[in-house]
Amino acid sequence: MPLSGPEWVSKFQNSRRIEDLEPGFGAGVSRFLAALRTAGATVTIADTLRPAERAYLMHFSFRIARENLDATTVPAKAGVDIQWVHPAGGGVTSAQASKAAAERMVAAYGIVFRPALSSRHTEGRAIDMTIGWNGDLEIAKSDGTMITVTSAPRNGDNTSLQRVGESYGVIKLVSDPPHWSTDGH
Amino acid sequence: MTTGNATYNRTLVLALLIAAGAACSRSPKAEPFSYEDRVAIAVGGSDKVCVSVKGSLFKPGDEVRLLDPGTQKSWPAVVEPVADPCEPSVSDVPLRAVRVRVTGEQPAPFIGVAIQAPRASWFEVIGGVAAADLDGDGQREFIRSCTSAEGVHLNVWSGAPVSGPRRWHAYHYVGYDMVPSCTPAEIGG
After folding, report:
1. Candidates B90, B148, B177; nearest CB to A115
2. Is A132–B92 a contact, with Cβ atoms under 8 angstroms apart?
3. Could you tell me the pTM of the whole model?
4. Ranges under pLDDT 70 in chain A
5. Domain residue spans of chain B
6. Which residue in B10, B34, B135, B145 is a FRET match for A15, CA 20 to 30 A apart?
């Protein structure tokens, strides 16, 4: 079983593909994006699916490195054959070696705050995207009716656009500008 | 008449001298402090510190102050001539990336603010919140950060954190999920 360390960071990469979303949500996202592009808006996707395996690696590397979690207590996860506990040697204890390896993972991931273990992204039910347009936006809702968005801001924070997204089952999370999901979480 | 004229002349000269002195002692009119221009998102990684700015300040060679509101630590830094390989924060408004060089002790990775203001050279810590009178109006500004689902909200308030008038707010997208810590007052705007 491979030991923990920064080489894990390149595994289980996040996706930007709509096809990797949960099929029902993905269908709604595809239709919403098509409506946006037809209306002349620009859309840049940052993330769709975040693998649960990646969240597991980020979460526990941070807790071992920064919160002194005992590496021997980390639960196993199917599909991730990582060995969190390093052997002692070279003048350091197993706990020190395990923590140092976890710290290298935290640095390689660029983690500052404790990562969550699960989210709508790990379920394939969320998308992060930046949306923008110039002037008025004439856009179709899911039922085909057209609305014209004349108000500011001309981005995903626009509440009229958010109502359009809702018609496709794509719900805005107010606290995070790029984030849309199945239920606004 | 002659005496009267001489007195008048002396009075006039004295008045002109006083007026000239007053004009010389008056400092040039200070520009109003622009938080949008002078406060920016700073992200410190293991090998570089990148700043995402809105305005035209933060030019190469400018001295700035970095602050991690989480630990209340701050560092002096200088804007580098080349931004590469810094990228601006993900944002709905146009931001420009600049790279800064920390001139003293190197910071641990952080998400915080960069401030270009003479009064940002030192901070107090009041109730666990970094504070300094950034705009020189006699009131302290309080700088705090909190997490939402996948980003960090950075705020500057005058007078008191959260309840005081908010002077500046920015959001930095981190690209992974976190446990939210922000209150509603720290998110909007």
Report:
1. B177
2. yes
3. 0.88
4. none
5. 35-187
6. B145
